[in-house]
Amino acid sequence: MARASQGTEITVGLSSCGIAAGAGDVMRALEAAVEERGLDVKLRRTGCVGMCYREPIVDVEVPGAGKVTYGEVYPERVARILDEHVVGGKPVEEWVVRAPERACEDDSYYERQVRLVLRNAGTIDPESIDEYIERGGYEGLRKALESMTPEGVVEELKAAGLRGRGGAGFPTGVKWDLARKQTATPKYMIVNADEGDPGAFMDRSILEGDPHAVLEGLVIGAYAVGASEGYFYVRAEYPLAVRRLKIAIADARERGFLGENILGFDFSFDVKIKEGAGAFVCGEETALIASIEGKRGMPRLRPPYPAAEGLWGKPTNNNNVETYANVPWIIREGAEAFSSYGTETSKGTKVFALAGKIVRGGLVEVPMGTTLREVIFDTGGGVPEGRTFKAVQLGGPSGGCIPAEYIDLEVDYESVTKTGAIMGSGGMVVMDDSTCMVDIARFFLNFTQDESCGKCTFCRVGTKRMLEILERICAGEGQEGDIELLEELGRKIVSSSLCGLGQSAPNPVLTTIKYFRDEYEAHIKEKRCPAGKCKALISYEIDPDKCVGCTLCAKACPVGAVSGERKQPHKIDQSLCTKCDACRRACKFDAVVVK
Amino acid sequence: MAKTHTAGDERDVVAVVDEVADSEGTGRGMLIPVLQKVQDRIGYLPPEALDRIAERTGVSAAGVFGVASFYSQFRLEPVGRYIIKVCHGTACHVQGATAITEAICDELGVPEGETTPDGRFTVESVACLGCCSLAPVMMIEENTFGRLTPEAARKVVREYGESASSDRGR
Fold first, then answer.
1. Choosing a second label site near A295 at 20 to 30 A (CA), which of A515, A529, A561, B125?
2. What would the pLDDT profile of A373-414 be if each residue is shown by its tens digit?
3. How far apart, in whole angstroms, are the C-alpha atoms of residue A229 and residue A225?
4. pTM given for the model
C-alpha cells in the first residue's frame, strides 16, 4: 500500500568510514522499518559525502521539499525519522545537519569547498553506471573521441594546467605527451591507487564514491597516449574500493566505454585490477611497475622514465587516482573553466583528508591557494575546545609539520614546498598542544625505516640510526649533539637515496627540528616532554584539591596503582603506574594531571 | 556482526597451489596474485607452498621467497583465526592508537605481533586503514571499528572471543 511517502528517497552514505561508524546497520534498520510501515520509499546507497565527523549520514528527500541531511543517525533513530519526517512531513530538527533554504551549523563546512573531483561522491550510487551517466558521465570520453585528436586532448590538459595529485605535481599533459610520442607498442596506463601515506584517504573515497570518474579519466588518457591496456594498482587494505571498481569496469565494458572499439571508434582499451601486497615504496612508479611484474617492489634509477621504458619495458603512463578523476571534468567543461580555479602555478582544486585533532574531520575539496586557516578553521572547525592549534602535518612520511605561525599560508605546490613540507597526496593531520613533535618525528621515522626497501645504504641504515636517536630522546636518554647528528644524517639521506622515499624520509624530522627545536631541547636537556606524551618523561598525579574521591580512576586503573578511601583524595603509586592514561580519561573532574 | 572473511585453514597445500595456479595462470606477473590467493586459503604461506609455487611458475624458490618476504601482506608463520589489525596511521597515532594496542594485548595476554595460545587471535599493527577521521580504528576480518577507546577495544575483542568460541567446530 502506497502512502503519502510516494517518491521519497532515503540515501545512506556507505563508504568504508560510514560503514565503520555503523552505516550498514542503519541501512538494515531502514529496510526493516520501511517494510514494517509499508512505506513506498526508495532506499539508496551513496559514497562519501565528506562529513566523516557526522557519520553515519542519511539524506531524506521528500518530493517538493528538497534534500534534508541527518548526521549521527544510529539504528535507534531510524523510526523517528520515518514517522515524523517521511510520514508526518516534519523533519526531526535536532538531528538535521543540512537542509535547503535555511541556515545549519554545518553549512560552513561546505562554504569554501569547490567540488570538481568529488562532483558525484556522496550524491550518486557508485554501483550504478546510469546514475553516473545521468550526471554527465562519459560525456568527456565521447567528446574526446568524437571531436578531439590525441594531441588535442594533451593540449587541453596542458592548457588546463593540471598537475599530478599524487604529490610531486608534475604537469599531467606533459607526462601524457612524453608517452604519446613513443613509437614502441603496446603502451600501458597505470592508475596508482596504492594510497600508502598514513593519514590519507582521498583516493579510497574517490574510488568508493565515484569509480567511473577515475575509469573515464583513464580511458581518455589511454586515447591520448595510444595505450591498449591499463592497470589499477589498488591497496589490499581497500576491499570496498576494489569491489566497486570491479562493478564499474564490468558495467563500462557492457556499455561500450571499455573494451574493443570503444563507442564504435577505432580505439580499444581494457583494464585489469592488481591488488597491492603491502609495501609503501610501491607508491613510487618504478617500484609499482616492478610489483605488477611480480617482483619485489624496489625502485630503479630513472632515466629511462616509464614513459619510455615502463611496464614490461614498454611505454607506460602512470598517474594517481585524483589526477585521473579531474580529467573527464576538464575535457567536458574545458581547460579555461578548470584554470579559473587556483593560483598562478597550481590550477584547479585539491582534495584533502582532514584528520587528527580537529572538530570536523573529513574529506574536503578546495581551490588551490586556499589558506590553511580556511581549511582547518573555517571548514574543519579548528582543534577541539580548550586546546591550542600547534601544527599541521602535510604530505605524510615524505612531508613535514607546518607550525601555527604559517596558518595563513596559501596552499599550492610551491608555497608548501617552501616551508620544508610537501603538498603530498592530500593528507592533512592536525596537531594541538597535546601532540609531542619529537614523538611525531619518531613515529614517521619508524614508518619509513620499516618501509625502506633496503636498496640504498643511506636510506636503509641512515633511517635506522635516526630512529634510534629519536627513540633515545623520547626515552629521556637524549645527549648533547643529538639534534645536530639528526640534521647531518637527514641531509645525507636526502642526497644519497635513489627514490622519493629516501629523499623525503628525513622531512618530518628536519621540519620539526626547524620549527620546534625547543621541544627537542626540553627532551634532551631538561628531560621533560612539554606536551606530556613521552612516557619516560612524565608522571601521573592526582590534584588533591580537585579530587572528590569518586573512585572512578581507581576502578579504571588496570594495575591497581590508584588507592584511596571513598570521598577522600586518591593517590597514584608511581612504582606501579604504567602511564596508560586510563585514570585521566576516567576522571570527570580534571583531577588527574600529567607532569 | 557480519562474518565475511576468515583466514582459511586448508591443509592439502600442494592441491591448493595447483588449483590456484590453474585458475590464475602462472606467468611472472601472476606471482603476487597466486601468493595472495594461496594465503587466503591456507591462512599463511608454508615452505611447501612456496616450493610448489616456484615449480608451477618457473620462478626460482629464492625468487618466490624474496617476493613473499618483501611484502608485509604475506605471512610465513601460521596466524590466529582472527587477525586484529590495529591502525597506527598518523591520525590514529595522535588519537592514541598505542593505548589501543596495549589494551588489546593486555586483554588477550599476548604481545603485539603474536597469536594467542588457543590460536584464535593475532594482534597486528598496520600502517593505515584509511578511516582517519574515525581514529583510532581497528579492523577484524573486514569489519572496521572506529572512534575507539581502550575500553571499547577490549569489549570488541571480548565479544569476538565469545562468538569465536561458539563457532568452534563448525
1. B125
2. 999 999 999 999 999 999 999 999 999 999 999 999 999 999
3. 11
4. 0.93
Best of B132, B144, B148, B151 to substitute, by most chain A Cβ atoms within 10 angstroms, is: B132
A109 exposure class (CB count in 10 Å sphere: 0-12, 13-18, 19+) = buried
A 10 A CB-CB count for A228 gives 15
CA–CA separation, B83 and B80 (whole Å): 6
Contact call for residues A558 and A546 (beta carbons, < 8 A): no
Residues 134 to 163 of B: which have CB under 8 A from any A CB?
134-135, 137, 142, 144-147, 149-150
Which among B35, B129, B145 has the least Cβ separation from residue A237? Answer: B129
Locus of grid cell 636498496: A455
CA angle, residues A373, A374, A378, in degrees to nearest 5 = 105
Please write the tens of the pLDDT for every residue from A199-246.
899 999 999 999 999 999 999 999 999 999 999 999 988 889 999 999
Burial category of A461 from C-beta neighbours within 10 Å (exposed 0-12, middle 13-18, buried 19 and up)? middle
Distance from the B41 Cα atom to the nearest Cα atom in chain A, whole angstroms: 16
Cα distances from A166 to residues A170, A257, A262, A335, A336, in angstroms, run 9, 26, 28, 20, 23
What is the C-alpha to C-alpha distance for residues A511 and A399, in angstroms, rounded to an integer? Answer: 9
Amino acid making up residue A133: I
Residue A447 in contact with partner chain B when CB distance is under 8 A: yes
Q: State the pLDDT confidence band at B167, using cuts at 50, 70 and 90.
A: very low
Distance CA A468, CA A557 (A): 31
Between chains, do B128 and A237 touch, taking CB under 8 Å as contact?
yes
Q: At what angle do helices B31-42 and B13-24 cross, to 10 degrees?
A: 140
DSSP result, A6-50: TTEEEEEE-SHHHHHTTHHHHHHHHHHHHHHHT--EEEEEE---S
Residue B155 burial (10 A CB sphere; 0-12, 13-18, 19+): middle
Angle at the Cα of B137 from the Cα atoms of A213 and A123, rounded to 5 degrees: 30
Minimal Cβ distance to A443: which of B66, B93, B149: B93
Task: Report the complex ipTM.
Answer: 0.90
Element (H, E) at B86: strand B82-87
A/B interface, count of CB pairs below 8 Å: 145
The residue among B168, B53, B147, B93 whose CA lies nearest residue A294 is B53
